[in-house]
């Protein structure tokens, strides 16, 4: 789906012209080069986010619950993105048309869906609720969800190569999971739903807001760009930093206001408000390695693992916002299939870290099938690239960007 002014690799008749990018208004870079680079960086950051979250939770070693992690991280994202948006506003990269009230509703929805995705997925991911063997399978449902909801909510038209692409990618995912399926069949991995049969369904339901947030994000970006082109504005792309600052603020507000979910019986991890506050305060103390918690804990690692997760999250969301704007949410969902392969490789290569985090043993079969799945998924991505743009508005839009877009927005 990554298109530039050249003919599609598979000669699709649905090309999407893009004039490329400038860096600090000086150097011109081709769109295809930037899109490929951003896709690779997105996969690496998403892998770091996945690994960092496991290590971050492991560094607390039971001192706090998952709600603290959601709260603390969303607060950190809001602060960082807000400071960055102030800088870009100072550099006049954030215009008055972007801060218009009509765009707020889109960012509100994205923030609420982002928070819902965090609550449902993170709270479901405990081993006694949805064992890792099942969660690695169920998380892939976000790909068909994204394609289906994109077709319903956005002006999308799918070429046969797009459909083939998704099919090939899902085959690649299934291939990478063969060792997991075998362990489940042999009874050598935990698949028992100790906390209730319904948790896998909650996990699947949590994938829906994860798909919707990227689709609504793309919807805002498409509407803003079309309006900016029609009005012949100089800046035709919605600011990534401003979007993330506002979206993260709504995400944080939703998580903060919904703290009572952590007290819900059979859902939250706190029995009462006293245990909630104790867990919450210990989370802050552990992150800053407060000596009052005593010795023998892992809090000296909390700052580093937290920084890894937060930086990876920031990178993932910045590149994701770029890709939904210039490529599509569907392409982003396909990219998400690669990061689990990298995470599996990481846990296999570093068994000591794996044991420390309590991930579970990775065998040569895991790494072999993960590496074998990678070329299959890349072939699927090639087919998606050959299908051209999936946006109807770009096929027939006479209002196109005539000048390169500034990359650092």
From TrEMBL:
The record's listing under Pfam families reads:
CRT-like
InterPro entries noted in UniProt? CRT-like (IPR013936), EmrE-like (IPR037185)
SUPFAM superfamilies recorded? Multidrug resistance efflux transporter EmrE
Q: Where are the transmembrane segments?
A: 31-60, 66-90, 102-124, 130-150, 162-181, 197-217, 238-264, 301-319, 331-350, 362-384
Keyword Ion transport in the entry? The reply is: no
Q: Record keywords: tRNA-binding included? A: no
Q: Name one GO cellular component term.
A: membrane
Keywords assigned by UniProt, alphabetized: Membrane, Transmembrane, Transmembrane helix, Transport
Location in or out of the cell: Membrane
- Lipid bilayer topology: Multi-pass membrane protein
- Which family does the record assign? Belongs to the CRT-like transporter family.
Query: What is the recorded name of this protein?
Result: Uncharacterized protein
> Species name for this entry?
Adineta steineri
